[in-house]
Design a protein that fits this description.
heterodimer; A: mainly alpha; Serine Threonine Protein Phosphatase 5, Tetratricopeptide repeat; globular; B: alpha/beta; eight-stranded mixed β-sheet; 8 strands; about 30% helix; MPN (chain B); ER membrane protein complex subunit (chain B); EMC8/9 (chain B); repeat (chain A)
Chain lengths: ~300, ~210
């Protein structure tokens, strides 16, 4: 998951290249590192380098990585001929390579030839049954054909073997959310938090799912995880600050008339509200009145 | 609802929602529709969809951002005499032409406050044909809630018409598409990631 600073650097490079300032190769490497999806630009700048024999030879062995990157970008832009050409070059250089075989499968997918792609992947899996990327392509294919329950069962099976694959847990959680299976999504985030307890996006996502599920216990837990997100992100996460306020408001609605517990809770809410107002005053002053009014309404509730 | 009801979408609302979908081609996106009810006579009314606010391009099934957005958007537009009259949605997959459950649920919520609520679903096939045709038709499908409480696509029984208020809206839309205007659009999600980004998108069409 790319941080805001790195994404900003990516954007800067994009502008720089557009203005003729160079930096295409740096850009392409950064896109690869961040796993960003900027296929049009990658295709454009990548092809410029590949079509220039001098620039290509300067890359040395990285030339092949670029062919792969451009092939995938081409598929994302429906430029199947370009993808095919890149794959042909790679196939010649690396005959029998499973990595190239995966690209060929990907091209079949891109064209919508699901059955052929499935066969291609099955063949590759015969020789490399533990190839994680291919297993995940099968999940992607199910998803692309709208078979979400199929994708879910494939992913679950995959995670039985490859339970340390955080990306897979995240993908599964997101599919569950889109199916409104929030309890299952929560389970995925619990797994992620257990294995990587200091990664704040997992705390945040978990809190958001719990809030969506509702109910007093879930709201109280959500509030705790919004709080841990704030701690882990140095107090700067807007969603988490808002989340604390939303939880506090919802909890007080549910506990109206009961004992006023949780003095610590109301301190947290005030701190969060203050932090939001400070931030809006500085960076989004036009929206401050709306924020203040909203916070007032939530406290009255 | 047996009464005739027409839905009229303004250019601003319409273009914003299409641009929003184009900015995030590999994700589902959604947003709110703002407008008012105009009584045309004893038996007919028109819902004027005057504006739209893009909401999300990720994790659409989650509540917190939706609730925050509803509170702030309702308050902001109340001052202009507009309220939330509907919801728009664009599916993740190109060939998915159905209004899924997350969209229906949000639609249900809006329906509770505005019984003539409209749900607009982006029609990818129509959008793809836009450059070639001379279409005056909007590239969205209208869904409204019928008496059996389910969301039905309009046009199947002749009632509940959707029209574009400005007939040249598609021409203007095509213009913005070719100039890649969709890069500039901001949704509530973007605002939560960076509050200096304004979900009102002022100056988008200047």
């Amino acid at each position: 998951m790319a941080g805001a600073a790195e994404v900003a650097r990516l954007d800067r490079l994009e502008t720089q290249i557009e203005n003729g300032g160079g930096g295409a190769w740096e850009y392409l490497c950064l896109v690869r590192k961040l796993k960003a999806r900027r296929s049009e630009k990658v295709l454009n700048h990548g092809l410029t380098i590949l079509n220039d024999p001098k620039a290509r030879s300067r890359l040395g062995r990285e030339e092949w990585t670029l062919y792969e990157q451009v092939a995938i970008a081409a598929m994302d832009c429906q430029q199947y001929d370009i993808a095919k050409d890149c794959i042909a070059v790679l196939s010649k250089e690396f005959p029998g390579s499973i990595r190239v075989g995966r690209l060929e499968g990907l091209l079949l997918e891109a064209k919508g030839s699901w059955a052929e792609a499935e066969n291609a992947y099955a063949r590759l899996l015969e020789n490399s049954p533990l190839d994680q990327a291919i297993h995940k392509r099968r999940v992607a294919m199910a998803k692309a054909q709208g078979d979400l329950s199929g994708a879910v069962s494939l992913l679950n099976k995959y995670l039985e073997t490859f339970m340390a694959d955080h990306d897979a847990w995240r993908e599964l959680a997101e599919i569950y959310v889109s199916l409104q299976m929030y309890k299952q999504a929560a389970f995925c985030y619990e797994e992620l938090i257990l294995s990587q307890p200091t990664v704040s996006p997992y705390h945040l996502a978990y809190a958001e799912v719990l809030y969506t599920m509702g109910g007093l216990e879930n709201l109280q837990t959500a509030k705790r995880y919004y709080a841990s997100t704030i701690t882990l992100s140095g107090g700067k996460n807007t969603r988490a600050l808002y989340g604390v306020c939303l939880c506090s408001s919802a909890i007080s609605q549910l506990t109206k008339g009961r004992n006023k517990e949780d003095k610590e809770g109301s301190e947290l809410q005030s701190l969060a509200a203050e932090a939001l107002q400070r931030d809006y005053k500085q960076r989004a002053p036009k929206k401050l009145p709306l924020l203040v009014s909203m916070l007032k309404n939530m406290k009255l509730n | 609802m047996g009464a005739e009801c027409c839905y009229e979408v303004s250019q601003i609302a319409y273009i914003k929602l299409v641009l929003h979908a184009l900015k995030h081609p590999s994700a589902a996106v959604n947003g709110l529709l703002l407008g008012r009810l105009r009584q045309d006579g004893a038996a007919s009314a028109t819902v004027e969809i005057a504006d739209s606010v893009p909401l999300s391009h990720s994790q659409i099934g989650l509540l917190p951002a939706l609730e925050l957005a509803l509170m702030q958007i309702e308050e902001h537009f109340e001052a202009k005499g507009l309220s939330v009259v509907g919801y728009y949605h664009a599916n993740e997959r190109h060939d998915d032409e159905e209004l899924g459950n997350p969209g229906k649920k949000i639609g249900d919520h809006i329906f509770r406050y505005f019984p003539r609520a409209a749900v607009l679903l982006l029609d990818n096939a129509k959008l793809a044909k836009l450059p070639s045709g001379k279409g005056r038709d909007p590239v969205v499908q209208l869904y409204t809630r019928d008496s059996s409480k389910s969301w039905r696509q309009a046009g199947s029984d002749g009632s509940n018409q959707l029209t574009l208020k400005e007939p040249a809206a598609n021409t203007v839309l095509l213009d913005y598409i070719s100039s890649e205007k969709w890069q500039e659009i901001v949704d509530f999600d973007d605002h939560l990631d960076d509050i200096s980004k304004d979900w009102l998108n002022p100056g988008l069409f200047n």
